Prior knowledge:
The protein is mainly α. It contains four helices and no strands. Helix content is 65%, strand content 0%.
Amino acid sequence: MSWTSWLIIAILIVISIILLTGKGSFIIAGYNLLPKEEKEKYNKKRLCRIIGIGALIMTLFAAIQAYIGDEWPSSMDWTIPVIYLGIAAVMVILGNTICKNKPKDC
């Protein structure tokens, strides 16, 4: 367990907390580059919370990996990246579905 791993995990926890409070939209890649008209289509607070929860789950998996270290079972060598990709996919799907504002009727 190196101290650099724990430093990175601590930074990721801080970023997750910022997102969970709904104030870290500038951290979300893609969202911060959208034009103002496109940003208005999303519920910013809900999007930050979804991304924050996903980031926190990924951070917890990274902390478990850092804690276990070399004693990790060989079967987990391919399982963990699949879990990370699955969490990222769920975050993208939720970000594009439940985080969008419903269109207002005329």
